[in-house]
Design the sequence.
């Protein structure tokens, strides 16, 4: 908002002048690994925000410091330090961007501060939604609200349909339909959001190891030519743990000679979307956006056979 300073009267002038200074709003970013924090920082600055990045040690890229107006490091579990940094920069709204490996919580060198210990004691388990929801609640109590993590990346959320030139065969469609329902069930149980299938055989289900490792495991077990399906949770909280795809995931798909990658339309972030599509086309990998309402999941975009037959008879009678 503009700050109005009292004017002054210059010698010989009768007019009173007001000087306006535009004050930028500062957005906070809690940065994990990968490209996500870089893209959020870049897009937020484009929209006129100052960016205060709190990088998680061992996860965030040090190069983020060059993309930030303000920067500080925190260790896993240092909630109080994070809040102190955000307060010092006048941050009241923040975005979580980038994955922090949950296995770090089980490592001996992690020492949660008192604030994090209180969050852990309140959570009923160590599921992603429980932990991240507890952190969000704590931050809100300290005057920092977590926002939709896709706030600045709406152009990076592809919709329903094929990306690129490669079209899926009927066999691939069948595996996608099968994999979609399975992945949704696993995601609803907070197990993982990715499955690897082949001819309706389940080769891998993502757990704590992450998407790329699950793809490599499933691809090896299936001997290549697999289909990978990645979805959002049934009640996805867009503030955190939103499905994301980038160059590392594409490399994993290429390594296992995957035939297709299906993702939840409108809820999956693609980093460097154009480049991912280009590389997938070159490697012969189908990229397909689906959701529960799309005919792509329910029947390859075709009308049900009974309805099609009824319409054909009606046309013949006319």
Sequence:
């Amino acid at each position: 908002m503009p700050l109005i300073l009292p004017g002054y009267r210059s010698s010989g002038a009768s007019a009173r002048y007001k000087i306006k200074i535009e004050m930028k709003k500062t957005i906070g970013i809690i940065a994990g690994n990968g490209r996500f924090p870089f893209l959020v920082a870049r897009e937020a600055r484009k929209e006129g925000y100052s960016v205060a990045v709190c990088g998680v040690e061992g996860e965030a890229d040090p190069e983020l410091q060059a993309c930030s107006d303000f920067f500080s490091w925190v260790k896993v579990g240092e909630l109080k330090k994070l809040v102190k940094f955000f307060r010092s920069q006048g941050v009241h709204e923040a975005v979580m961007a980038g994955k922090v490996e949950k296995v770090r919580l089980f490592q001996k060198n992690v020492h949660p501060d008192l604030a994090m210990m209180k969050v852990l004691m309140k959570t009923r388990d160590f599921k992603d939604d429980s932990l991240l929801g507890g952190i969000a609640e704590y931050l809100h109590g300290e005057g920092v609200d977590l926002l939709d993590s896709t706030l600045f990346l709406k152009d990076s959320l592809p919709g329903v349909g094929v990306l690129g030139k490669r079209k899926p065969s009927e066999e691939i469609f069948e595996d996608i339909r099968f994999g979609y329902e399975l992945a949704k069930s696993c995601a609803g149980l907070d197990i993982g959001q990715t499955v690897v299938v082949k001819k309706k055989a389940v080769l891998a289900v993502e757990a704590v190891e992450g998407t790329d490792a699950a793809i490599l495991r499933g691809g090896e077990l299936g001997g290549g030519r697999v289909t990978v399906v990645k979805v959002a949770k049934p009640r996805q909280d867009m503030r955190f743990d939103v499905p994301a795809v980038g160059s590392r995931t594409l490399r994993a798909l290429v390594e296992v000679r995957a035939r297709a990658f299906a993702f939840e339309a409108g809820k999956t972030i693609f980093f460097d979307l154009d480049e991912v599509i280009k590389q997938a086309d070159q490697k012969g990998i189908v990229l397909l956006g689906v959701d529960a309402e799309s005919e792509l999941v329910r029947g390859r975009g075709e009308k049900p056979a009974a309805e099609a037959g009824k319409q054909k008879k009606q046309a013949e009678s006319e």
In short: Residues 24-146 form a domain with the Rossmann fold fold (CATH 3.40.50.20). The radius of gyration is 24 Å.
